[in-house]
Amino acid sequence: MRLDRSIASQGAYTRSEIRKLIRAGRVTVDGAPVRDPGAAVDPENNVLAVDGKALNYREHLYLMLNKPKGVISATEDRSAKTVLDLVPPELFRKGLFPAGRLDGETTGFVLLTDDGEFAHRILSPGNHIMKTYIATLRDVPPDSQLQPLRDGIELRDGSHCLPAEVRILGDRTVEIKICEGKYHQIKRMFAAAGNRVLELERTAMGGLPLDPDLEPGKCRELTAEELDRITAR
Ligand code: URA
Fold first, then answer.
1. Nearest to 70 by CA among 218, 217, 219, 220
2. Which of 122, 169, 174, 201 has its CA 20 to 30 A from that of 43?
3. How far apart are CA 208 and CA 210, in angstroms?
4. What does the pLDDT read at residue 11?
5. Residue 40 CB burial class (10 angstroms; 0-12, 13-18, ≥19)
């Protein structure tokens, strides 16, 4: 890959900044300055550095965001704050998007990535990667209300949901796991069962729980081991 593209793909510098840095001899490849922006490099194996600081090259980026209320799961919006607005500049790169949306009032774990294949894999219902939510309900749910969710409930528009895993945590609090991502699915599932969701938080994706130390509005990069836990069985 070209030297300038390898650096640009990491998102920290604009193309014109990169050209200037390279021409000024401030970019090194395995310790030696390279002044040709088009020089061929292997960013996975060569050490690229700017002003002596090694670029931690990654082909793709995976961020865990703790989404607060009022932020929308879109890449851009004219007026509302989006999940991408919460990514600090040092973690930002072109192509980031939310792999699975939460509605505006729902809080919790949003995975941001620029890896479309991975996103598709974790979102395809056929791969059975469960997304875990904690729902606070208006009414104490009798078992007769939860069983249809476990069996695969029919929504009011006639569409069918795959069976959910449901566990009672408190009087009006339940943990629910689903592997699909229909529009407002959990809220519509409980509405179809005759209840109402008052608060909703996504607490895990696959086998990876939301980091309890990650404050609402903050995001951080996932480790390779954490990434594996999303898809681990
Ligand atoms: N179900 C909902 O109702 N909202 C979400 O954001 C996610 C699942």
1. 217
2. 122
3. 7
4. 82
5. exposed
94 has a pLDDT exceeding 90: no
Token pair for residue 175? 């943990």
Range of weakest confidence among 23-27, 53-57, 205-209: 53-57
Say which residues have a Cβ less than 8 Å from residue 5's Cβ, sequence separation at least 6.
none
Nearest-atom number in ligand 1 for the CA of 106 is 6
Q: What gap in Å lies between CA 122 and CA 206, rounded to an integer?
A: 8
Give me ligand 1 centre to Cα 154, in Å.
16
What distance in angstroms lies between residue 110's CA and the mean position of ligand 1's atoms? 12
Quick one: tokens of 201? 């938080």
What rounded mean pLDDT belongs to the chain? Answer: 96
